[in-house]
């Protein structure tokens, strides 16, 4: 159940407080309703072609969560633009072959295809070939992603399990578990286990 906080500005205060409480419970404690996420393909977000690709065998046994450390995005068009800018940064500045992440998730509640399940990413040194890197778009040092984004990640993980992309015993970790970084943000890191519990 995803309760849109921002779309209820005209409702009475006590109603908004109800929404806040329900959202909090949905985000942290119970699975609510988990459907298949909307996946925005590379062609839909206007991806550049990769300079090269490195394939791997599935299933993968690790998932690593990141944040983009950029402003959040809440609409399809702004999230597509953000994903394009991340790809440009990775390809132009970092000189990587493609956007580094396997998937990205916006607070519009959509999943954006990066390198996908079966290609090696560039997101966590030493762990790329054996993990799926999922980037939550935003800066989550002092806030958590909204319910739409969290449910999109859960839906993606559930899809990965049901389609045999992930092993049934996969590990879910934050970038900071495998490298010296503040990514995925201390507040998001605090609730990572809620993503794993609800998706497995
Ligand atoms: Zn990271």
What does this structure look like?
The protein is α/β, with parallel strands linked by helices and 200 residues long. The protein has helices spanning 13-28, 42-45, 76-93, 147-162, 186-190, 192-199, and strands at 38-40, 60-67, 103-105, 110-113, 131-136, 166-174. The protein has two domains: 1-33; 35-199, Peptidoglycan recognition protein-like (Lysozyme-like). Helix 4 crosses helix 6. The radius of gyration is 16 Å and the shape is globular. Zinc ion binds at residues 66, 175, 181, 183.
Helix and strand arrangement:
Layout: H1 13-28, E1 38-40, H2 42-45, E2 60-67, H3 76-93, E3 103-105, E4 110-113, E5 131-136, H4 147-162, E6 166-174, H5 186-190, H6 192-199
Parallel strand pairs: 1-4, 2-5, 2-6, 3-5
Antiparallel strand pairs: 3-4
Helix pairs in contact: 4-6
Bound molecules: zinc ion.
Strand order of the largest sheet: 1-4-3-5-2-6
| Overall helicity | 25-40%
CATH topology term of the largest domain: Lysozyme-like
- Average pLDDT, rounded to a whole number, is 87
**Would you tell me the structural class of the helices and strands?**
alpha/beta
Strand content: 15-25%
Q: Which ligands appear in the coordinates?
A: zinc ion
- In the residues, how many domains can be counted? 2
Task: Provide a count of the helices.
Answer: 6
In angstroms, what is the radius of gyration?
Answer: 16 Å
Parts with pLDDT < 50 across at least 5 consecutive residues = 1-26
The name of the CATH architecture of the largest domain is 3-Layer(aba) Sandwich
CATH superfamily of the largest domain: Peptidoglycan recognition protein-like
Number of strands: 6
The first-level CATH class name of the largest domain: Alpha Beta
Q: Mind summarizing the main beta sheet?
A: 6 strands, mixed
The rounded distance between the terminal residues' Cα atoms is 18 Å
Q: Per the principal axes of the C-alpha atoms, what is the gross shape?
A: globular
């Amino acid at each position: 159940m995803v309760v849109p906080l921002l779309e209820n500005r005209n409702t009475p205060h006590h109603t908004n407080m109800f929404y806040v409480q329900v959202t909090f419970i949905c985000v942290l404690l119970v699975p609510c309703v988990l459907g298949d996420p909307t996946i925005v393909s590379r062609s839909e977000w206007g991806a550049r072609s990769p300079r090269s690709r490195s394939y791997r065998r599935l299933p993968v046994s690790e998932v690593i969560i990141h944040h983009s450390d950029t402003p959040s995005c809440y609409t399809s068009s702004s999230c597509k633009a953000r994903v394009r800018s991340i790809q440009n940064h990775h390809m132009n500045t970092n000189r990587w072959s493609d956007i580094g992440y396997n998937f990205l998730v916006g607070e519009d509640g959509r999943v954006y295809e990066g390198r996908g399940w079966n290609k090696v990413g560039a997101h966590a040194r030493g762990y790329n070939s054996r993990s799926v890197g999922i980037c939550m778009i935003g800066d989550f040092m002092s806030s958590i992603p909204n319910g739409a984004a969290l449910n999109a990640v859960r839906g993606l993980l559930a899809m990965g399990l049901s389609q045999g992309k992930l092993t049934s015993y996969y590990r879910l970790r934050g970038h900071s578990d495998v490298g010296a970084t503040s990514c995925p943000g201390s507040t998001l890191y605090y609730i990572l286990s809620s993503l794993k519990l609800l998706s497995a």
